[in-house]
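Late entry, evening session. Most of the bench is empty. Finally got around to the prediction I had been postponing all week. Sequence below, unchanged from the version circulated by S.P.
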Amino acid sequence: MATAHELTVKNNGRNVLLKFTDADLIVDYGGGIMDDEHSSQCSSVSCFSGFCRTHNTRLDQVPFRQVIGAYYAKGSLKVSYLTRNHKKNFVLCKCEGAVEEEHNTFAMDWADKLMDAAYKGAKQSKTLKVLVNPRGGIGKAKSIFTDQVEPVFLAAGCTLDITYTEYINHACEIAQELKLKYDAVVTVSGDGLIHEVLNGFAQHEQPGKAFAIPIAPIPAGSGNALSLNLLGIEDGLDSLAAALNVLKGHPMKADLFSFIQNDKRRISFMSQSIGLVADLDIGTDHLRWMGDSRFLYGYLRGVLSLKTCPVELSFRLVEDDKEKMARFAQENTGQKPCDPSSSGVDDLEELPPLRYLGGTEEGWTTYEKPFIWIYAGKGPYVSRSLMQFPVSLPDDGLIDIAVKEVVSLYSFILLNSCLKMVKDNRAKLLKALDGAEDGVPYWSTTNRYFKVSAYRIKPLASKGILAVDGEKFPYTDFQVEVHQRLGTFLSQYGRYMVNFKVQEPKQVLK
């Protein structure tokens, strides 16, 4: 019998009880364990038809955030949800059962109430523009989408407009002409596809409204930094967790950058790097088959070579006190999803003006010590194994810059200890791997860290590697400045999902 928030459905003469509390959906299968033959027919999908399920339990307790669909039609109730397997990854469960005729009205109302509780104000049955890069990462983006993600979107009742990109900047061309009817743009690839979409928005006839369309990544590349920052280290590489974020996420405003080089302006959302970190990114592009392990390989190779980075760095400094920056970030990581209407940029008819290009030298600081790399960007994680910018915030209107110093060769020659310098610096660089996924190297005394409103770089050598959002750019002069809250991403949390601890002075690395 149906009672408040409880409903019994039938399949093959057996009852399954569904009910929901203030926080969870409970599915009580009430039957025995399925046999091996039946189990082998169902890998990741469960259903009431035959009582298939992904685990040998008689009861599922599912948080509302993991319920994605509940629909009643023609005497049948369908419920879809995500649950975690033994590896802590999400799997899709689909449930269907017949409802007795006298409970049809109640079943329809029950499904509506469950959906209201499950989505909590997020739009149901979204209209999504999906861009899949079949060549992204290690080439599994297409199967990740068709086998894992698309079934989740369809179970949630979404309308999908799918395009498989065919060449470089294809996504940019699509975004430039994109109709403003979509609830989100979903990118199934690495961070490079997001870079293309944002630069397409920059050329849109209504750039403000285009930038207001949220972008939501499905991790299918090498680094997947944005997904890691939005979902956290535990779920950042789980394609179904990312799909859930598409369904349940709210628009979150985020800063974007203008990258100006050779009088050409491009949008950057993640990072710009030069020196060792650029070498390990672009210089290992031929090793994409290794996944994000290629970054570790590139780092170790760079440590052995120990090359300094001959460039001139200047910036407009806002803050360089590490403890102050860390405490401020810690105090501002519990934000609720921010109101996208408060950005003030949605009605832009063109990109925000550049404030610092070709202006006075007043307010600029030149960094003069030798260093191994420069890494500038937005978002704590740049890969699963490296929290490069642990005090980065989505919309503080600032660029985070990390500079890895190295003691000058000339000074050590004077001290007749050149060999020790090489040994010591390699040891420090290798030690920087310790706790890199938790941001520990932030505290190293050889890791200088700045928050700036703009910066510029002039290479002092003819050859080198410059990476912007993980893509190779010409190794020539460039300048970067920030545009506060210009971009929009989908987030269930309204902040970067990072757990960075402020250390006591005695714990600071040398």
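Two things to note before I forget:
The chain has three domains: 6-119, 127-248, 264-347+356-481.
The longest strand covers residues 478-491.
Will write this up properly tomorrow.
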